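re: that complex we talked abt at group meeting.

here r the seqs, copy pasted straight from the sheet so there may be weird spacing, ignore it
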Amino acid sequence: MAGEKKGLQLLDFWVSPFGQRCRIALDEKALPYEYLEQDLGNKSELLLRSNPVHKKIPVLLHDGRPVCESLIIVQYIDEAFSSSSGKPPLLPSDPYARAQARFWADYVDKKVYDCGTRLWKTKGEPQQQARKEMVEILKTLEGALGDKPYFGGDEFGFVDVAFVPFTAWFLTYERYGEISVDKECPRLAAWAKRCGERESVNKNLSPPEKVYEFIGTLKKKFGIE
Amino acid sequence: MGETVKVIGAFDSPFSHRAEVALCLKGVPYELLLEDLGNKSELLLKHNPIHKKVPVLLHGDRAIPESLIIVEYVDEAFQGPPLLPADPFDRATARFWARFLDDKCSTPFWLSLWTEGEVQQGFMKEIKGNLKLLEGQLKGKRFFGGDTIGLVDIAASGFAHWLSVFEEVAGVTLATPEEFPDLCRWGKEYTSHDTVMQCLPDRATLLARFTAKKDIFVSTVKSMAPK
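got the structure back, here u go
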């Protein structure tokens, strides 16, 4: 294709936890990239051309070639830049440990965002149900963490990258869901704080109050009281 | 490696087949433990407490659930022909289309079979559109993986062998050779492959079993909120 830009570009939306996974992975590998904020209400030619199937962010462009789906992007970053970055891999080398990492990242994908959305989008009985489910989901993840400093063990890894952006949403879940992550899942809360001390996480997560504000705006837009 | 390999699976399940075919392609002998999904075993619930679904791969003392995760595990844990490409970009592309099958094809396919009227027409349009996108990935190759079977072929295997059985039971036509020439050709290649045939459930048996379960299938869509 003519005029392909060399290097890495990330098509993203500021508050997206899925996009933040990619930003964190790129920073963990110390990879320079161009961040391109997308207007999701008026999608660009570049976005539509790069992700014609889903028309969603994030999309990573590497020398103009698109990689879509956040967890696939994170694995791509890990595999394409494994030797050049000199940084530890995000996925472990043992096949079983890799399978477990993929399982828990997939669990986060299947459960957290959808349930979290129902927490702020619904009221009454469905909201109560979402509240119960979210506590269960967080406790399950806390169980997977166990006594380890990170989901990956001693090193920050794939599952940590997959889940940590959602920690910026804990405040929103707490306020709309009347849940306290500190009380229900103290080890998870401690893990969130530990991750927050890493530069890649600190730099790329949205401030929790900003997430809450953003959801407030969405609720007004959708006419949800 | 010498450790025992078992698959907790189900006769009818294309997801279960994915785990088996990956092992067959690697030449790994395994024991198949068939579940009655209406009465799940202690073994299944112990090894997949989160999702309680088949397939689960048991390799020594390790348990791996989720069919696509199993396929990647088998690719990495055992010698034999690779199931994923070597190049990172090609691997990302393969993973994308494997996920596409699970995220965008499974549900509209199921709903297109057992709903009726305008609702059914909507789901049929959706699944046909998505199958067209998938078909576009063949680009004249024998398999999605090229000359050999790969991750996307394995992920799409439901549409090779199970599709026509479900069409017959539901009285619905989704993929004709006229409309989907490449996909239908691929389906035949896949289901007639020597290694695949070792772990493909007998079509006539599937047809009989699904026909007997038709009412149950129809009732499942009632609990699935239409979009």
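couple things i noticed - Chain A touches chain B through 21 residues (CB under 8 Å). Residues 8-80 of chain A form a domain with the Glutaredoxin fold (CATH 3.40.30.10).
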